[in-house]
Design goal:
Number of strands: 9
Radius of gyration: 28 Å
Structural class: alpha/beta
Strand order of the largest sheet: 2-3-4-1-5-9
Order of helices and strands: HHHHHEHEHHEHEHEHHHEEEHHE
Helix content: 40-55%
Shape: globular
Distance between the termini: 37 Å
Oligomer: single chain
């Protein structure tokens, strides 16, 4: 598991927590454990690259949460042992009946506070502590969607005087379209650009509980946290999983979650000023009609056009050495009609592996000049690169005989890209595109 930014912070906090725990500084240890868990949850959501890594982090979270709970209970009992003095420095006097009533009231308040804290702790991983560092310029195309999000998120915070009287920012925006077109990526860009807003990133697993009545309380707590931290953005990925169409055979729990969402998003007495609910879905027709109405702006995120696809090839190649020209990138954009952004990412990743495959299958290598592994600014003469058996200076050997410091892999070429396109087909089917276009004609706007 690679130590990324949030993960490294979590590890540092845990190290400090265990040290404080050992030295019996329990309050500081508790604080560090809780902060560490927040960073671990952030790492699971945005940084862990494999299911195995996520599982490993979750196991650590359970361990540290268990220790936190024990420390909380210990500190609570310790506080209760302290005598409560009245204004004159002595214990307050009261009748027996009064004591019983006060005790009952205190217990109810404690229970309520504990429940609230429990739900807030469950949702703490949804609060984005660090921005993902994705700018508007990193999102290829989708100009209409970007303008709508700037209208809803950036302008009201930067120029509040523009939104007075009847001119009000959007309270709910739904991003819908085929899988892999950049809906979640847009949300990350919003989190980056709206750096003075609190960003809550939620999925159905964050809000669904096996305990009766807990799911709707989690929804209520989520909106309560958003109101306390205004301006705030609640991003709900795969919103259809939580707010699908109501039917006779749906569970009571599912119906209650939807009802709570409706109440919180536009219920009587609920203040939504300074809060944007941003939803994303691949199947907007499955949304409950009342929920759909709460998303005032519904933006279709279509498959990318050829110029956007060319830009995506360039973005995904990044700084990897390659021989592709601007004309090559334009041609790749034209050749990938029907591919989503995610499909293009897969094509490029496969193409980046082609030089590695050439190294693996090569039977001959030749000596070439190239940058030193120790210092790329220094050019050396004795590097080895794969070649055909008939190439001048070809030496019969395989990659097992090549010193790691001496290997110079071939750079990514146009032929590598074309081979990967041949092997990677688009994942979006025609039937779904027709349904999405119909939904756009009925309820949405082009993004």
């Amino acid at each position: 598991m690679a130590n990324s930014n949030a993960l490294q912070k979590a590890i540092d906090l845990v190290t400090k927590a265990t040290e404080e725990d050992k030295n019996k500084n329990y309050e500081e240890a508790l604080r560090c454990y809780e902060h560490a868990v927040e960073y671990f949850l952030h790492a699971i959501k945005y940084e862990a690259s494999s299911d195995k890594a996520k599982e490993s982090i979750r196991a650590k979270c359970v361990q540290y949460l268990d220790r936190s709970e024990k420390l909380k209970n210990y500190l609570k009992k310790k506080d209760k042992k302290k005598p409560v003095a009245d204004g004159h420095g002595s214990k307050p006097h009261s009748s027996k009946g009064g004591e019983s009533s006060d005790k009952s009231s205190d217990e109810d308040d404690d229970k309520k506070d504990n429940d609230q804290k429990k739900f807030e702790n469950q949702l703490s991983g949804a609060i984005l502590m660090e921005t993902p560092n994705i700018k508007w310029t990193d999102v290829a195309g989708l100009d209409g969607a970007k303008e709508s999000l700037k209208e809803a998120v950036i302008l009201p915070v930067k120029f509040p005087h523009l939104f007075t009287g009847k001119r009000k920012p959007w309270k709910g925006i739904l991003l819908f379209g085929p899988p892999g077109t950049g809906k979640s990526f847009l949300a990350k860009a919003v989190a980056t650009e709206a750096n003075n807003s609190k960003f809550f990133s939620i999925s159905s697993s964050d809000l669904v509980s096996k305990w009766l009545g807990e799911s709707e309380k989690l929804v209520k707590t989520l909106f309560s946290l958003a109101r306390e931290n205004k301006p705030s953005i609640i991003f709900i990925d795969e919103v259809d999983a939580l707010c699908g169409s109501r039917s006779d055979n749906e569970s009571e729990s599912s119906r209650r979650i939807k009802t709570e969402f409706l109440v919180q998003m536009q219920g009587v007495g609920n203040d939504m000023d300074g809060i944007l609910v941003l939803g994303a879905t691949n199947i907007p027709w499955a949304l409950d009609s009342a929920i759909r109405r709460r998303f005032e702006k519904r933006i279709y995120i279509p498959l990318p056009e050829a110029p956007a696809r060319s830009t995506m090839f360039s973005l995904h190649l990044g700084t990897t050495p390659h021989s592709l020209t601007e004309q090559d990138l334009r041609e790749l954009g034209c050749r990938t009609e029907g591919y989503s952004g995610a499909d293009i990412s897969v094509v490029v990743r496969d193409a980046l592996m082609q030089p590695v495959r050439k190294v693996q299958t090569a039977t001959h290598f030749r000596r070439v000049r190239g940058p030193s592994r120790a210092d790329p600014n220094v050019i050396v003469d004795d590097l080895l690169t794969p070649c055909s058996p008939g190439a001048p200076g070809a030496i019969e050997m395989n990659w097992m005989n090549v010193d790691g410091e001496k290997l110079l892999e071939p750079i990514v070429s146009m032929s590598d890209m074309l081979m990967s396109i041949q092997n990677s087909k688009p994942t979006v089917n025609e039937e779904d595109l027709k349904k999405l276009q119909q939904f756009t004609d009925d309820f949405g706007v082009e993004g």
